[in-house]
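tool=predict chain=A
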Amino acid sequence: MNGYRTIRRSAAALLPLSYALVGIMALSGCAATATKDGQAAAVSPDDPYEPFNRAMYGFNDTVDNYIAEPVSKAYRYITPQFFQDGVFNFFNNVRNVDVITNDLLQGKLQQSGEDSRRLLMNSTLGLGGLFDVAKSVGLEQHDEDFEQTFAVWGMPRGPYWVIPLVGPSTTRGIPAMILDAALTPTSYTAYPVQVAVASLINTRSNAEGALKFIDEAALDPYVFTRESYLQWRESLASDGKNTQGTDLDAELDANDAEASSSPKKPPEKMPAAKAASPAVSSSPRTVAPVAEPKPTAASASPSFAGTAQSFDATAQAFQGINAKLDRLSKLKNWSAH
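tool=predict ok
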């Protein structure tokens, strides 16, 4: 009962407000998208409340610019790397309680055993999770949560939402977020809010590079965020079976084949002037590299996420694309020499 009250106190400041705004969004969003110059406006089936979501995206950007980003930069400047690694490993280890539960609920018995051993090993030999010793013996970190469990059980995803101070989610993801928080041991500490803030600062710091990439590369950062997030969640829910290839993947494969058959030796350092500059096409599901970035009026900062889980989920999706673009730039520079 005491733990339940702690959860309620820590969540009361944000979640009720978010649900109230989501309810308002359902009404105002319909009105905003129903007409445009007297005619029906085209809307994405995944994002029927886009006008409101864009407004919340802009609000979250403002919070990120003036609060989250400066704090995370100060954190990275002040704290040594080994301390940052320890904090990251600690929160990653704590998440395994939620991961193991969802392993069992999804019927992944073998994976639940591996994750249980990972949690036990890092909690003991890893000094409470500060060191990821399980990885050295081949026990990799898995990513399971209640939204994936609901998907396995057949619950529809529902519309895309941008929740104030939380970030990207879906109708299915909102109740899942509450259950995930209830299974996180740090929610039951004496200072749950302080622990949540520390987790947020850590994940915001680790997401810096990927989020900066969105701001610099995307023609429409909002669409890029939405499509990357939805595709990443779909990939998680299907264990990677429903991943769709992109033009970027095809170009990477072509460059890989060319590089493997070429006798040229790649330069050790890539000249910045010859690196391909990435951009996102106006098509909502296609990521396309181009020679030079096109100017855009929507030069928004990355969307701020008020919870570590939501922020980390979005960041991982962007980091994968960022790695592909970096790889493509190096391969193109190699072929240019």
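DSSP finds 13 helices and four strands in the chain. The first strand starts at residue 160 and ends at 163.
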